Amino acid sequence: MSNKLNSKLNLPIIISIILHGILIIALGYKFMSDTGENYGSINGNSIDAIMIDPSVMTEQYQRQLQVQSNQRKVEQQRQEQLDKQVEELAEKAAAEKAAAEKAAAEKAAAEKAAAEKAAAEKAAAEKAAAEKAAAEKAAAEKAAAEKAAAEKAAAEKAAVEKAAAEKAAAEKAAAEKVAAEKAAAEKAAAEKAAAARKAEQAKKDKALNDLLGGLTSGTPNASGGAASRKGASDGELDKYKSLVQNAISNKFINPPNLYRGKICELQIQIAPDGLLLNVTSKGGDADLCREALAATKLAVIPKPASNLYNEVKMMSIEFQPK
């Protein structure tokens, strides 16, 4: 800007110099033309010569130059002040611009950071929500699968238990049927055997009665009546019980002396003809008693003598396998 100001100041000085030069030339030309006849007079009148002192003009010129120089200095100072103000304003504007740009950059960075933070938090929240939903879904599916598996296992177990129960019931029913059939067969066989034994005993009794003349038929006589009143002797009772044990032993199976040394006490109820009415175990080895009861039900128990019946109709036998 100072160069432009100098150019503006030089132009008036140049014009002023040119004008002064023209003035000096014009004055010199007039001075030369007035010399001659009319020198010193105009229209017959004499005039004083006009003399221009070059030193005066030079002094005036110098003063003018000094004024112009002073003006240039003032203008230059003014321009410098203006330039300084302009520079200060420019620096201030630049500082303000830089501050604004910095504030804008900081604001943009803060907004960007806030946006990134919000986006990250949103992404984290969405991820957490998705993971939670996935975990809940997986847990629900696992629980449903476990429940289904448990229900299936329970159903299968119930089905197996039902089938086992039905099989056991069927086997029990079959076993009971077999047992019932066996018991019926054994009862029929026992009844048949008892009937045969009764018939045989009746035959023997008849033969014995015929042989002894009716002494054992129960007909009242002196000796028979006395025997009946006195009851059976211990020897007769032991002999009969021995016959009963032998009858049971004939139906008892003792594999490799399994029950050697073991005893079962049996209580036996019979009819007058020796028919087995009931048998129970009153103590002893449980396995032996079970087999002894089965053997007693199959045994053919001999008919007791009339005088023995009251003693043996409900008798106890200590059964011991031979």
Give keywords:
322 residues, rod-shaped, 3-stranded antiparallel beta sheet, mainly alpha, two-stranded antiparallel ribbon
Distance between the first and last residues' Cα: 153 Å
Which strands sit side by side, in order, in the main sheet?
4-3-5
Largest sheet at a glance? Answer: 3 strands, antiparallel
Number of helices: 6
Radius of gyration: 81 Å
Which percent range fits the helix content? over 70%
Query: What oligomeric assembly is this protein in?
Result: single chain
Q: Find the structural class using helix and strand composition.
A: mainly alpha
| Mean pLDDT figure | 77
Could you give the count of β-strands?
Answer: 5
One letter per element, helices H and strands E, the order comes to HEEHHHEEHHE
Shape: rod-shaped
Poorly predicted parts: 39-44, 211-230
- β-sheet strand percentage: 5-15%
Can you put this structure into words, describing what you see?
This protein has 322 residues and is mainly alpha-helical. The chain is 74% helix and 8% strand. The protein has helices at residues 2-33, 54-212, 222-230, 234-251, 286-298, 306-312, and strands spanning 41-42, 45-46, 264-270, 276-284, 314-319. It has a three-stranded antiparallel beta sheet. It has a two-stranded antiparallel sheet with strand order 1-2.
